[in-house]
Write a structure and sequence with these properties.
The structure holds two protein chains of two kinds.
Chain A (H helix, E strand, L loop, with lengths): L4 E3 H15 L3 E5 L3 H4 L2 H6 L4 E3 L4 H13 L3 E5 L2 H7 L1 H9 L6 E4 L18 H6 L5 E3 L4 H13 L4 E4 L4 E3 L14 E4 L4 E5 L3 H14 L4 E5 L2 E3 L3 H11 L2 E8 L4 H12 L4 E6 L9 H7 L4 H13 L10 H8 L1
Parallel strand pairs in A: 2-3, 2-4, 4-5, 5-7, 6-7, 10-11, 10-13, 13-14
Antiparallel strand pairs in A: 1-8, 6-12, 9-11
Chain B lengths: L7 H22 L5 H5 L1 H10 L15 E4 L5 H11 L39 H14 L6 E6 L6 H12 L5 E7 L2 E2 L2 E2 H4 L5 H7 L3 E6 L3 H13 L5 E6 L22 H10 L4
Parallel strand pairs in B: 1-2, 2-3, 3-7, 6-7
Antiparallel strand pairs in B: 4-5
Helix pairs in contact in B: 1-3, 1-4, 1-10, 3-4, 3-9, 5-6
The chains are: A alpha/beta, B alpha/beta.
């Protein structure tokens, strides 16, 4: 069976048009990137409800906030870098602080932006949004999840950040998938190690699980697409079952999924964790597939991390440092 | 809907009482922004009591005009005006800036009736006002959107992004008022970062521009009315004011931007403002 591929940003654009027909209060704003973010479909269908703010992301967020105060349901879109970086304080001071009904759907998250290079590859957007009180942070892994999340966001009366990607990715969920706030999903059961993906890295985790299976290792795969609020119960349950966790995200390992998982597990069920993601480094130009290899974001990298973290399950006292182990034995 | 007051003497008297409220609030709080609250008092009194259509019992309800205090540090002024209009009890004014108060140091819509959005980080209110103006137009509502900007505030780049947007979308239901008191925290605006020619800048951005004496209530009321008649573009009223207006020792003094009066200054202010 051929692999069906869909791009999360394309699915966002299509879903917006459908929702626009159902909800007359939806308005859409963009900052001169409507072709890339895919809001141009909505602009064509509902020209009177689409506002291009030009290359002005701070004004984009402020205008969206005003439309929300005026009773509209604004969707504000631009590249993830500019939405969360350039306009972070506008999002913080008005949209998050006042808990306004603004949906920020930002495209071009992560290094798979590709050739445009490091200036346009958002690798810190999830950290910037996750840190904000009141903000819900979602990263769909495929088309059906995108459609469900965008639809859900309309019904939720508060600020939501959704990160979409540039590339087409294999479809994981079927069309009956429905999103629930604060709930992750188990995509594969396994007792040896838990692989947790976000966005395009969910597919990489599934592939890594197949590689591990060939080695006789049963990997559980979770999709924590709702990064905030995080499904901590599912996470703790998984850690208790498998005792070893790998996180994988197209983002810095600080501030995003890896951080969120470590925060929860450190407090509730300390467990060995390995984080796959960018480590204190910016993106560069190149073909997306090559960049994923360059930054260690492939199924093989996840497989290797899984083997390493499984080896940490049984640790000598003192964390493996002989001099500390000796002390603890006294 | 509240009835507008157009009698100048009556509005002047309200402005005097509001200035007394501001001095009392800041003295009791021990901190707050005095100069920029007093400079904009006549602007806000004439706007809220003489121009805007408001129903304080149901803030933000249909048909009501909307106001954004973009220069959020003038919160004491906005609070004093809202209290006098009946949005909340007058005695709340004396809890300003205290732990648990409904009156935060800068406006916070989550706890103060009549405050539309949080402001205080400068340069953001005009964008929000534009959004409100677009929403009103989409809904076919005929109320107006008002926004008060500080003069130092327009050094923020976002103000000019929003200035372009308002003109591009022909937001003739929007009136901005610029409190031109010529002082900012570090000194004279002309020395810190030149703003002039302000009127020409706004005109070049496609705005209908007016200049008034920001302490002459009749001039302010006439300007608000004139802006209602403008079609196809937004309006800005550049209101020339004196920072700290109403109390001689505070007037045009940089040091009273963000400090509370000392006991001596407080007593002198009460005397000059004719406290009973």
């Amino acid at each position: 069976m051929p692999v069906v591929k869909e791009s999360t940003r394309v699915e966002y654009g299509k879903t917006l048009v459908k929702l626009g027909e159902e909800y007359p209060d939806i308005v859409v704003l963009d900052a001169d990137l409507s072709g890339s973010t895919q809001t141009h479909h909505f602009a064509k269908a509902f020209p009177e409800r689409f506002f291009n703010l030009g290359v002005a992301e701070q004004d984009l967020m402020g205008t969206a906030a005003g439309l929300a105060v005026g009773g509209k349901i604004p969707f504000a879109s631009t590249f993830a870098m500019f939405a969360t970086g350039r306009a972070w304080e506008q999002i913080r001071q008005t949209i998050a602080y006042a808990n306004l009904n603004v949906k920020i759907v930002a495209s071009h998250g992560g290094v798979t932006v590709g050739e445009d290079g490091g200036s346009h590859q958002a690798i810190e957007d999830l950290a910037l949004m996750r840190i904000l009180p009141n903000m819900v942070v979602l990263v769909p892994a495929d088309g059906p999840q995108t459609r469900a999340m965008v639809r859900w966001a309309v019904s939720y009366p508060g600020p939501v950040y959704i990160r979409t990607g540039r590339m087409a990715v294999p479809v994981i969920y079927d069309d009956s998938y429905q999103f629930q706030l604060g709930r992750g999903s188990i995509l594969r059961e396994g007792r040896d190690v838990t692989l947790i993906g976000l966005g395009i890295m969910v597919q990489a985790c599934l592939e890594a699980a197949r590689l591990l299976e060939a080695q006789g290792i049963e990997a559980q795969v979770l999709n924590l697409a709702c990064l905030k609020p995080l499904d901590w119960e599912l996470l703790v349950d998984a850690a208790q079952r498998t005792g070893a966790v790998v996180t994988a995200e197209e983002h810095l390992v600080t501030g995003g999924l890896g951080s969120a998982v470590c925060e929860v597990l450190s407090e509730r069920w300390p467990t060995p964790v390995r984080r796959i993601g960018l480590r204190d480094i910016f993106g560069i130009s190149g073909k997306p597939e090559l960049l994923l290899k360059h930054y260690g974001l492939t199924p093989e990298d996840i497989q290797e991390a899984a083997l390493k973290v499984m080896a940490q399950k049984e640790r000598p006292a003192g964390g493996g440092r002989p001099e500390l182990a000796a002390i603890s034995k006294r | 809907m509240m009835k507008q007051i157009t009698d100048e003497a009556q509005l002047k008297e309200i402005a005097r009482q509001i200035r007394l409220d501001i001095v009392e609030m800041l003295f009791r709080a021990g901190s707050g922004h005095l100069g920029g609250s007093l400079s904009a008092t006549d602007i806000l009194v004439s706007l809220f009591f003489g121009q805007m259509h408001l129903t304080p019992e149901s803030p933000g309800g249909p048909g009501q005009d909307r106001f954004i205090l973009s220069k959020g540090h003038a919160a004491p002024l906005l609070y004093a005006v809202l209290a006098r209009l009946g949005y909340f009890p007058h005695e709340e004014l004396y809890t300003l800036r205290q732990f648990g108060s409904m009156l935060q140091g800068h406006p916070d819509s989550s706890c103060t009736p009549g405050v539309e959005v949080p402001t205080g980080s400068l340069g953001q209110g005009l964008s929000i006002a534009n959004g409100l103006a677009l929403a009103a137009r989409l809904r076919g509502n005929h109320h107006r959107i008002y926004v008060l900007l500080g003069d130092g505030e327009v050094q923020e780049g976002q103000v000019w992004e929003a200035a372009m947007t308002a003109a591009h979308y022909r937001l003739d239901n929007l009136t901005a008022i610029l409190d031109r008191n010529r002082l900012q925290i570090d000194g004279r605006t002309a020395e810190v970062m030149s703003l002039e020619p302000l009127k020409e800048k706004w005109a070049a951005f496609g705005w209908h521009t007016l200049q008034v004496d920001g302490h002459q209530i009749a001039e302010l009321l006439a300007a608000y009315k004139a802006c209602e008649q403008v079609k196809g573009r937004p309006s800005i009223i550049i209101a020339h004011t004196v920072k700290g207006k109403g109390v001689s020792i505070f007037e045009d003094q940089k040091k009273y931007h963000g400090v509370a009066p000392t006991p001596e200054e407080y007593h002198q202010a009460l005397k000059e403002l004719g406290a009973a």
